Amino acid sequence: MSATPSPLEQAGSPLDIVLVGSADAAKGAGWEEHPPRMGFFTDTSICIGCKACEVACKEWNGVPEDGLDWTGFSHDNTQGLGADSWRHVAFVEQRVPLTGHDPNFQRDTDGFRWLMASDVCKHCTHAACLDVCPTGAIFRTEFGTVVVQDDVCNGCGYCVPACPYGVLNRREDDGGVHKCTLCYDRLGVGEEPACAKACPTDSIQFGVLDELRERADQRLATMHAAGVTEARLYGRDPDDGVGGDGAFFLLLDEPEVYGLPPDPVVTTRDLGRMWRNVGWAALSLVSLGVLSVIGGERS
Amino acid sequence: IVQVENQARVCHSSTVVGLGTSFGRGASSTLPGDLQNSDLIVLEGSNMAEAHPVAFQWVVEAKNRGATIIHVDPHYSRTSALADHFVPLRAGSDIAFLGGIINYVLQSGSDFREYVLAYTNASTIIGEEFSDVDAEGLFSGFDPENRDYDPTSWQYEGAFVAAASGQRDQEGSLRRMGTDGQGQGGEESRGEITRDETLEHPRCVYQILKRHFADYTPEMVERVCGVPQDLFLKVCELFIANSGRERTTAFVHGVGWTQHTIGSQYIRCASILQLLLGNMGRPGGGVMAMRGHASIQGSSDIPTLFDTLMGYIPMPHAHAHEDLQAFLAGDAPKRGFWANMSDYMVSLLKAWWGEVAQSENDFCFDYLPRLTGSHGTYDTVMEQIKGTVKGYFLFGQNPAVGSANNRMQRLGMSKLDWLVVRDFSLIESATWWKDGPEIESGEMRTEDIATEVFFFPAAAHVEKDGTFTNTQRMVQWHHQAVEPQDEQRSELWFMYHLGNMIRERLADSGEERDRPVLDLTWDYPTHGRFVEPIAEAVLAEINGYTADGSYLSSYTELKSDGSTACGCWIYCGAYADGINHTARRTPAREQNWTCSEWAWAWPANRRILYNRASADPDGKPWSERKKLVWWDEDQGKWTGYDVPDFEADKRPDYVPPPDATGPAALAGTDPFIMQADGRGWLFAPAGVADGPLPTHYEPQDSPVPNPMYKRQRNPARQVFVHPNNRYQPDPDTPGAELYPFAVTTYRLTEHFTAGGMTRWTPYLAELQPAFFCEVSPELAALRGLQHGDWATLVSARGVIEAKVMVTDRMTPLQIDGRTVHTIGMPYHWGRNGYTTGDSMNELSAMVCDPSSYIQEVKCLAVDIQPGRRPQGPARTEMMLDYQRRAGITAETGMEV
Amino acid sequence: MSSLASHNGHGDSGHVPPPKGQPGQNPRPDSYYGMSVINPPIWEEREIAGYLFLGGLSGASAILASAAELSGRHRLAGRVELVASGTISLSLLALVKDLGRPERFINMLRVFKPTSPMSVGTWILSTYAPLMFGATASRLSGRLLPLGRAAGLGAGLTGSLVSTYTAALISDTAVPAWHEGHREMPFLFAGSSAMAAGGFGLLLAPRAENSPAWRMAMTGGIVELAVERRLEQRLGTVAETLVSGTGGERLKLAKGLAAGGLTVAGLLGRRNRVAAAAGGAALVAASAFTRFGIFAAGMASSKDPRYTVEPQRARLRQRLRGDA
Ligand SMILES: Nc1nc2c(c(=O)[nH]1)N[C@H]1C(S)=C(S)[C@@H](COP(=O)(O)OP(=O)(O)OC[C@H]3O[C@@H](n4cnc5c(=O)[nH]c(N)nc54)[C@H](O)[C@@H]3O)O[C@H]1N2
Ligand SMILES: Nc1nc2c(c(=O)[nH]1)N[C@H]1C(S)=C(S)[C@@H](COP(=O)(O)OP(=O)(O)OC[C@H]3O[C@@H](n4cnc5c(=O)[nH]c(N)nc54)[C@H](O)[C@@H]3O)O[C@H]1N2
Ligand code: SF4
Ligand code: SF4
Ligand code: SF4
Ligand code: SF4
Ligand code: SF4
Ligand SMILES: [Mo]
């Protein structure tokens, strides 16, 4: 067991169980009979930064175009995930000493590499956005994915800062919050998501989460054997702060380099303690009220 | 004057020459899917991950299977990011780089000797009159007056071979031979080829090659290309280690190689290397030309190009070809499948003029227009300016952005009587007369322009049936998905109805000159409320049929007696048995990797060309690992994973009788069946205008002198004299310092070519929303350029502005003791559309490769300064001020 | 196609880009172009920080009102009750206004989710507000007084939750300054609410009835100052947002006002009407600045990726050390 227990292990009281949820995402959400949990394994080591995933997603889901900002952030003019970008390809230009490469081939002693990675909603096992949504607009599908129902969302915006990955946002025009649905409509008819379908190099791999995890482990082993020691899996571990991601990644550098949090935690993991303290604080306030009238007036 | 061109000219025309002369067919020898079998993939002059992302999956697949990937390029792109090794080199220096590898292979004796001996012309002896480039940089036969070569002295000893591609009408040579092209010396001069199988004869190709490339040492490579010697030697070693019986190397190239004043020779250079290493015709080998528009291979095959007819039959010349016989005698070789040119030509004439074409009237050969010289895209512009070309159709082309020297393009169009643009949006080529830069600067006034401009909305590919011929020669049917909206119509519809209208107008004409139009077979069936011609009927005609109307199934069935009609001989079989083979869709998992049941590839559905070479001379695979096609003694025929690119029953030990002609004159060991000698041409005795062997010259506007030869530039290049097409001073001469930096241009995944489609598409525009230039931190510091701010770029042709992207992906190079900075620019922007910006091609010059007439837009020299450019008249003034200070005149950069 | 274009800049992505002029390569190895990791809250400051303050004030005022009522201080009770009603009305307006789709406010009442403080809060508010309005209406109209009194008592009890649940509301996010402070936040908010309600009481109450308000204000103020100090000590790097920038300025002002208010009101408040009013006003203002300060600190901590990454890195390091 690792030094920091997983959310479930941490969850002590029944209240915590209610707050944190079950490791079987779909079952925890009340789907007794359900298909296997589906997800993404995005192998960023073979991403060519073509952004076909971004465009396919927008086409399929009718996500609006959102402006002509030239950022100068390498080839990234999308900047991040949000209401109008459900896939985001990050571009990172780096001067680094490379491992697994012949040093003779480096441009100079500094070395150089260009990382590309397509980011998406993680469809967390313990999804903060879903937990905090006050209207029930966000729900867990039978595939274990996390989807916003546009016709229910009232735009309260609570899910926006709740997500530890900065995935969701509110769209100016319609006041609702939008994010990746893992192409719920396509999954329903046995089609793979639009982004995975469009990805030419299979950097985005869609499938049964358990199988993807296996495949990712193999890929990681291969890469390590080939000397690419900087390769690592991100979001694959079911014991992490969000109970593992439904969409996880193979990265070639620290997560924060790609704009990802290094150790995300579902905020509701601490909600039990919050409620307890709210209770104590409220009680104290009432007591204070009572105490404040005990004793007379100063004359 | 009728001038017909398409963007295959400005795109890959030099590939056709380079590959065609080397191997016999001017098209990619393999398919992207075969790259998965490569042990080494060298991407050079190609930005495959960005321009061909879907095909690039096979490079990724090869990499996952353990192959090594090298990317050689002036700029570090998304392709480089996936490569194992990135080799930065100076734009315009690849012949030195590739020549260096050839030299290394030859000096170390690492060539695949058995292959070289059997399948290339290494042993062939060249005539005595030939002399190789001297210190001057000239081959024998140069004529400074005409700025061209007489290639006769490059011929084989005792024989005359015509090229399968490129400059096939040996006009120049014959003119000087005093025959005035008549009969071209006939069969007599095409005697027997002499060979020295020991490769020791000083005039055998192998020895000539060795001497020619001896100067291309690692030191020289470093001096010319800026590639450090150790890095270069590493690449050489990788080549050698990954070629031979057991392993193969593939070359992938794109327009980083084609668009140079010596572009055809870039492709030749790679071809030579692949022949020496025995990588042609084998799995995981070949030269993969990554082509452009969805069907640009098709527009080379079935060309609207001035110099070729359907299936690469050369266009007849005015002086030489009085009749069909003379034409064939002049342009068709005696041996190999091109010897059957008469079958292809007569069948073509039958397809066009049907019943009217009879042997008595030479099958209407006289109806064909005749060439009087080069009528390439840029010649057309000059003729427009002169006033000889009065009308212009732009069907899906945007020269005001995409062609070199945009100003000249607009100037040409402003001199026309009429201009017809068929496109999806109001592209720059349709609106220059009201909002072009010259209108803004006051140099042109709308009311003064007499050109009548018509704009017709075009139907997109999803709105019409038809085919794409993609980069692997695969003809693929696409079905109409939706009816065209509003006024949008297909090209087929437009041409068909335009043809009908013209024919109606001419119906009563008694003029002889109208016969070709009136006698055309113009009877395509139509359907639907738009009276749309049925595209499949056109395909059927292209495929061809016999007099009794049955469909042909192979070009070997074509006859020159008028009993067959075929619109394009290499496409013969695409509609065999009346079945549309281009619409086949057998999934990949149900067949081997060549996917021969997915659509249809020319020729004869062969996917990997010259695949006879995948077997040794005896017909056995070179190795188990690399087997593809082999001789099956039991069945008495060639068999394997692909359709054999060989006569199926020709035994490997077949030796042609001495008097044999045509295919029968090729031995059972001659895999390059379109070549006159059946061999891969290490040395091209004909076909390439600027020499039988590639030679390094500098680009027209280069920041550095040529350290190899006295001739700075390709002496045979095609130049255009016009005040708006000035060239820049020689490096290291006064004025050159005003244009000190190298420029190269390329594509971004997010946009397409001149932007007519993508700049108007919000989903793509937002991904690359501004025109930018890429500079190294070093150059930024040198010129005070700020990341994210503006920069102004100046050449002798124009002034533009771009956002500055400071990035490590641009590398300053050490060239012969000096630092050369390169500025990289995508060329997708123009003034119209949703994302707008200056067009890169305002800077480039009209100057062309002499074999293919392609322009040089991959390397030039410019100045860059921080800040935005001047507006209005001051913009032109800035360009002229630079010209004046540099002392530029009509003579600058014009030397031969 | 262009009908899809919304032309709202990079509006959709909440990630905040750094200023222009940086080189093409990632300027910082520990972030993606300095952009935020999480999407910062999209809540409007005036509405939501305002609500944190007003809601807290209302809830604590309701307690004070009930207590005053019970102890027979009717004038105090009446005035403080008005404050409670008024502020909760404003609160509700602010909350609805801040919704992206205000017309769908009602969707909150479709579910009750203990995992969503906003859901819980909605139910708290929908219990509290009617009680509060009932009590006030009854008192003002003089009708159904017993019922009104009972309602007032109920409002007092639920008011305690109105004042404190908002701590869970903001802490139950990935906003570093809020989430990292989730232990203290309820007590900070309780203290701050008491301080504000007491302060308002001091401002409005007749001198003869102001002792409860005084006690509440004093206790609340001291608690707020103490908890705020603890937050600053415990939040590590993230605490920077509490002591610098807009958040830091506001909190500094809040601390000053609180200290001043406590001193003035504490020493003179039960003797001098003017001093009571001045001290009370300062305490109300202090509470407001505290809430706006906490809000701003949260926003700042969400925009700079450092505050997301560093604590997480520290946690990872600790875990690694733990493993070893
Ligand atoms: N997304 C996208 N795809 C496209 C197109 C597009 O515009 N956008 N265009 C289509 C068309 S028309 C074509 S022809 C193809 C072209 O596809 P590519 O040939 O890949 O096109 P480019 O990116 O123009 O050029 C290729 C590379 O050549 C490099 N280069 C420039 N000069 C030199 C040189 O002197 N030597 C060497 N070795 N390299 C050099 C450039 O830096 C660039 O990386 O792509 C087709 N596909
Ligand atoms: N500096 C520089 N210049 C270059 C190059 C370079 O690398 N660098 N590359 C060169 C190359 S390889 C090429 S191919 C050229 C390309 O240059 P162009 O061919 O001039 O440019 P495109 O934008 O491809 O023009 C094609 C037009 O066809 C329209 N279109 C598409 N489909 C249809 C259709 O079905 N019917 C009709 N009627 N119109 C249609 C599109 O909207 C578009 O406007 O640019 C060349 N110029
Ligand atoms: S990544 Fe964010 S938006 Fe996606 S499921 Fe997890 S918490 Fe929700
Ligand atoms: S904004 Fe919509 S989806 Fe997000 S928490 Fe509020 S109601 Fe739920
Ligand atoms: S799964 Fe569907 S919704 Fe999600 S990013 Fe991919 S295409 Fe978009
Ligand atoms: S489609 Fe695939 S390769 Fe292209 S950017 Fe997206 S993840 Fe990368
Ligand atoms: S646009 Fe078409 S041809 Fe180009 S990469 Fe994509 S699929 Fe291939
Ligand atoms: Mo092209």
- Overall body shape of chain A: globular
Mean pLDDT of chain C: 91
Residue fraction in strands of chain A: 5-15%
Distance between the termini of chain C: 57 Å
What pattern of helices and strands is seen along the backbone of chain C? HHHHHHHHHHH
Strand content of chain C: under 5%
Biggest sheet architecture of chain A: 4 strands, mixed
> Which regions of chain A contain 5 or more consecutive residues with pLDDT less than 50?
1-14, 98-110
Counted beta strands of chain A: 10
Order of helices and strands of chain A: HHHEHEEHEEHEEHHEHEEH
Q: Helix proportion of residues of chain A, in percent?
A: 25-40%
Number of strands of chain C: 0
- Largest sheet strand order of chain A: 8-1-10-9
> So how many helices of chain A?
10
Helix-strand makeup class of chain A: alpha+beta
Radius of gyration from the alpha-carbon trace of chain C, in angstroms: 22 Å
Tally of DSSP helical segments of chain C? 11
Unreliable sequence segments of chain C = 1-14, 16-23
Query: Which class do the helix and strand fractions of chain C yield?
Result: mainly alpha
Entry summary:
Chain B is an alpha/beta fold and 896 residues long. Chain B contains 26 helices and 29 strands. In chain B, helix 5 (94-107) packs across helix 10 (229-241).
Set down the secondary structure blueprint.
The complex is a heterotrimer of chains A (299), B (896) and C (324).
Chain A: H1 7-10, H2 14-20, H3 25-28, E1 38-43, H4 52-61, E2 88-94, E3 113-119, H5 128-132, E4 138-140, E5 146-148, H6 159-162, E6 169-170, E7 177-178, H7 184-188, H8 194-198, E8 204-208, H9 209-225, E9 232-234, E10 247-251, H10 271-293
Parallel strand pairs in A: 1-10
Antiparallel strand pairs in A: 1-8, 2-3, 4-5, 6-7, 9-10
Chain B: H1 8-23, E1 40-44, H2 48-51, H3 57-64, E2 68-73, H4 78-82, E3 85-88, H5 94-107, H6 113-119, E4 142-143, E5 148-149, H7 171-176, H8 205-212, H9 218-225, H10 229-241, E6 249-253, H11 255-258, H12 263-276, E7 287-289, H13 296-301, H14 324-331, H15 341-353, H16 377-386, E8 391-395, H17 399-402, H18 406-414, E9 418-423, H19 428-435, H20 437-441, E10 452-457, E11 466-469, E12 474-478, H21 491-506, H22 515-518, E13 526-527, E14 532-533, H23 535-543, E15 545-546, E16 564-565, E17 600-601, E18 629-632, E19 637-640, E20 718-719, E21 741-746, H24 762-765, E22 772-775, H25 777-783, E23 790-794, E24 799-806, E25 813-815, E26 818-820, E27 822-826, E28 847-848, E29 860-866, H26 873-886
Parallel strand pairs in B: 1-2, 1-6, 2-3, 6-7, 8-9, 9-10, 21-27, 22-24
Antiparallel strand pairs in B: 4-5, 11-12, 12-17, 13-14, 15-16, 18-19, 20-28, 21-29, 23-24, 23-29, 25-26
Chain C: H1 45-70, H2 74-98, H3 117-141, H4 145-171, H5 176-179, H6 185-204, H7 211-234, H8 240-243, H9 245-268, H10 273-303, H11 305-323
The complex binds ligand MGD (2 copies), iron/sulfur cluster (5 copies) and molybdenum atom.
Molybdenum atom binds next to loops of chain B.
